[in-house]
Amino acid sequence: MSHAERAFDLVLFDLDGTLIDSAAQLALAVNLTLADLGLAQADEAVIRTWVGNGADKLIQRALAYREADPELFTKARPIFFQHYNACLLQGLAMYDGVAQSLRRLQSLGYKQAIVTNKPSDFVAPILDALGISDCFALWLGGNCVPVKKPSPEPLLHACQELGVSPARTLMVGDSENDVLAAKAAGMKVVGLTYGYNYGRPIADSHPDWVFEQFAQLDALLV
């Protein structure tokens, strides 16, 4: 596909549940935090349904699940961050086809960026460990702008920073947050079925395309 034929110049990616499967590390950190607070742990399958709105919301959902006093959040937050930082890279892996597709899009001249609700301190170590940092012109963590997805503001900020209009930008993610943010920003959006999305089918959020595999992006962009 030539540059003149392309519909997009910039591709924005979510991180957790889109590029990487981080549920095991997040679940471990959540359960270690619950244990430190004297609370019963939760199954990883349940914790997966809590992922997507950032670390603070993840911690709050864990406390609510165990019917703990919400005021425990202030104590739980630094404990969780300590545990997650310790296990951040343990067994970390990208989903099938991610590295190859990112490299292919990079070689074709697409601008690529990450827009995630994950705290920014964790993003760079993950990208560096996976060897894909150079694929991205920009990455925005959940604390890089005043509001998180599903607000369109992080996506619009990325467009502004990279000099690409929302109409020429594609968002790729696994959750309702990604779809809502993209639509509000005036972007097309791909919903991936293999991610988290609180245990609900991504098709229910009505993205423009629903893909079961990351490599299906090639048919749309290459």
From TrEMBL:
Keyword list, A-Z: Carbohydrate metabolism, Hydrolase, Magnesium, Metal-binding
Signal sequence interval, chain numbering: none
GO molecular function, one term: metal ion binding
Domain of life from the UniProt record: Bacteria
UniProt keyword annotation of Hydrolase present: yes
GO annotation, cellular component aspect: cytosol
Cofactor(s) required for function per UniProt: Mg(2+)
Residues engaged in binding Mg(2+): D14, D16, D174
Keyword Chloroplast: no
Catalysed reactions, as listed in the record: 2-phosphoglycolate + H2O = glycolate + phosphate
CDD domains associated with the record: HAD_PGPase
One BP annotation, GO: carbohydrate metabolic process
Catalytic site positions: D14 (nucleophile)
Pathway(s) annotated for this protein in UniProt: Organic acid metabolism; glycolate biosynthesis; glycolate from 2-phosphoglycolate: step 1/1
Protein family (similarity comment): Belongs to the HAD-like hydrolase superfamily. CbbY/CbbZ/Gph/YieH family.
Protein name: Phosphoglycolate phosphatase
Organism listed in the record: Aeromonas veronii
Lineage: Bacteria, Pseudomonadati, Pseudomonadota, Gammaproteobacteria, Aeromonadales
Gene assigned in the entry: gph
